[in-house]
Amino acid sequence: MDITKIIGPLNDAQRQAVTAPSQAMLVLAGAGSGKTRVLVHRIAWQIQVEGESAHSILAVTFTNKAAKEMRGRIEDLLKVSAQTLWIGTFHGIAHRLLRRHAKEAKLPETFQVMDSGDQLRVIKRLLNTLNFDDSKWPPREVQWYINAQKDEGIRARHMVEAADIHQRQMLRIYRAYEELCDRSGLVDFAELLLRAHELLRDNPAVLDFYQQRFRQVHVDEFQDTNTIQYAWLRLLTDGKDNLFVVGDDDQSIYGWRGAKIENIYSFQKHYPNHQVIKLEQNYRSTGTILKAANKIIANNAGRMGKELWTDAGEGDKISLYAAFNEQDEAYFVVERIRAWVNEGGLRSDAAILYRSNAQSRQFEEKLMATGTPYRVYGGLRFFDRAEIKNALAYLRLMSNRHDDASFERVINTPTRGIGAKAIDDIRCIARDQSISLWAAAIVLINQRTMTARAANALTGFLELIKNLDKQAEGLALYEKVRLVVEKCGLVELYQKEKMDKGEEKIENLEELVNAARLFDFDQENEENLGELDMFLAHAALESGDSQADDFEDCVQLMTLHSAKGLEFKLVFLVGMEEGLFPSQQSVDDVARLEEERRLCYVGMTRAMKQLYLTYAESRRLYGRESYPRPSRFLREIPAEFLQEVRMRATVSRPVTAVQAKAASLQATGSYKLGQRVGHAKFGEGVVLQMEGSGAQERVQINFKQVGVKWLMLAYAKLEVLQG
User: Fold this and answer.
1) pLDDT in tens, 43-71
2) Contact, 543 vs 115, CB < 8 A?
3) CATH number, domain containing residue 176
4) Is beta strand 719-720 parallel, antiparallel or unpaired with respect to 676-679?
5) Residue 223 C-beta-side C-alpha neighbours within 13 Å
6) Higher model confidence: residue 348 or residue 522?
7) Number of domains present in the structure of the chain
8) Is there a domain that residue 420 lies in?
9) What is the per-residue burial (b if ≥16 Cβ within 10 Å, else e) of 621-649?
């Protein structure tokens, strides 16, 4: 047996993890240390060398993209199909379990999966039904509350009435929401995980079957698991010691959405016979970047401890730029990117990372002004677009008439003369009789209390859905989707929209038909479901995933959270200021501050070759101007790893600007940034930035009386003021 392909490309630590005997194992994988390679080669080793059946292996990831990549790499390594492997996201695996065991899970076989947007609409309707003012009870806050309880494994029936009126009302809403979802056969993302855990916990025969089937269980990004995810992993591996997890406590950055860094520590207690292997050799960044990142993360207490290193050389020092304000910061970053491109670099190899989405505006403006293509990573995804959601809602209603979220979404999209009163009447009947909106609509029509026009419009809508369903019988999946797109009225609706937005939406609907045509039904389906139901579940699950599209060579803009798992040759980590990064909410909370530090560590280790850190001495953000101190994270980097840069120069030894205010102003053209000037009409002001040269040179000034203005120097006749 030739095992060279499996272990040949591995370093010593990776090889130790891949070939270790079957037991509970925690692979502590640092940034850029090859964790996916270890998972792929571990599974290949178990199949080819240890004789495990692919049927007996479960691998859980956090994105569909990662699952697809893992499956492809395993097939490429073994040169055999990996179709019988269960590889998928937590939500995807939970969905498969519930489809197979809907009865044991106390769900209808035709249950529908709601994405986050559908769930929010259900909550809005519920609040309206319960007469809650959504200005006092924001639907998103209610959504967060419900999902947070489910992530902790808490049902409404487990909770006791609190003395606090707010908590009592939240519990009332939670109870009503559960009743509505049970009645309508709706399952949200958090419910998928909770219901799958309850399925295993409450059905010994089901649990025993999967414990016997899955002899090897693998988990990627273990530090990002929440309470309920870890709970059902423990059920599956109870008494087996067959849980192989890969994670990094230094990259746990999703506490705000329920991830529990405690899980990576609890693993050692729950699996006392475990082994820990550390992957510390980094294949991404230069030695200088890694040493600086190591110094920062070392300030966190309670770490499991590791030191990233590389044999690829020290590389350049980290560049530090002290900007006068956020506009100067953006100007500097864009100019450096333009220089990078002029020297032969790709725009797509450059990334601007920020703590808050609100920071992107300045960079977008400067990029647009210079004609530099860019993309805000993590923008609206295909299945999140309104026109796609509308078409899918028609398809869901065809599949399940009692899907209230879909009914409400399309009953008047496009407008068909069904007024707000009629819809309110439908809601009231549904609430009073505990029936679905579809059934309530039929009751309302039979009561003959509506005007003839409204009754005809409502009847026409119900007939449309029934006719679409009838006409779709016997058609291929993509033909069903095309039928709905052509007959439901959405194309005509978007044709009326001005400019090219309507055309873009119609093109997206056409792409939905193409997505249905390319849908791999055989790969997705082991539960003997119809193609349409599988496609709808696929769309709901995909809408919560971060999927990258093909795009032109352009600069990447994204939050630090979005940057997780990515890498770029040139990285700008901007807004390194107290109150912004770390955020103001975290400075007095040790746990949150440590997560902010991990976020900084993640951001720095995205850089492969060059890393810039920038901060502004003054910043206008959220409508307020502030004069922040440089981030404490900058002070945690030894000076030997830094060089301070200016617009037209580089200082080999950094000025201690991170300890106090910048030592001097940067000279640019005829004036200096921060210089006080006077204008005959606008009065006194401060120079913010300069651009251009010669007759085209212009200056931006913040005037006390009239605010910020751009002036051409050839005509401005500015007077330099002292002091």
Assistant:
1) 999 999 999 998 999 999 988 888 888 98
2) yes
3) 1.10.10.160
4) antiparallel
5) 21
6) 348
7) 5
8) yes
9) beeeeeebbbbbbbebbebebbbbbbbee
Ramachandran sector of residue 153 (left: φ over 0; alpha: ψ -120 to 50; beta: rest): left
CB < 8 Å & 24+ apart, contacts of 714-720 = 716/679, 717/679, 717/680, 718/671, 718/677, 718/678, 718/679, 719/677, 719/678, 719/679, 720/671, 720/675, 720/676, 720/677, 720/678
Joined tokens for residue 514: 């193409």
Domain boundary among 512, 542, 572: 542
Q: Which of 620, 590, 598, 530 is nearest to 304 (CA)?
A: 598
Least confident interval from 346-350, 553-557, 610-614: 553-557
Q: Using CB atoms within 10 Å of the CB of residue 662, give its burial: 0 to 12 exposed, 13 to 18 middle, 19+ buried.
A: buried
**What is this structure's pTM?**
0.75
Distance CA 181, CA 175 (A): 10
Residue 216 has what pLDDT? 95
Find the domain containing 698 and state its range.
671-720
Most confident range (mean pLDDT) of 358-362, 541-545, 548-552, 602-606 is 602-606
- Spatial CB neighbours of 381, under 8 Å, sequence gap ≥ 6: 542, 543, 545, 546, 547
476 in the same domain as 563: no
- What share of the chain has pLDDT > 70, as a percent? 90
295 domain-assigned: no
Q: How confident is the model at residue 546, as a pLDDT?
A: 37
* Same domain (yes/no): 592, 636: yes
Q: Which amino acid is at 647?
A: M
3-state secondary structure string, 543-590?
A: CCCCCCCCCCCCEEEEECCCCCCCCEEEEEECCCECEECCEHHHCCCH
Point out the residues that are catalytic. Answer: 35-36, 220-221, 251, 606
In-domain check, residue 123: yes
CATH code, 711: 2.40.10.170
CATH assignment at residue 567? 3.40.50.300
Query: What tens digit of pLDDT does each residue of 648-684 get?
Result: 545 444 444 444 433 333 334 467 777 888 888 888 8
Burial (CB count within 10 angstroms: exposed 0-12, middle 13-18, buried 19+), residue 84: exposed
**Together in a domain, 180 and 201:** no
Among candidate residues 116, 120, 106, 41, the one with its CA nearest the CA of residue 77: 41
Residue 403: strand, helix, or coil: coil
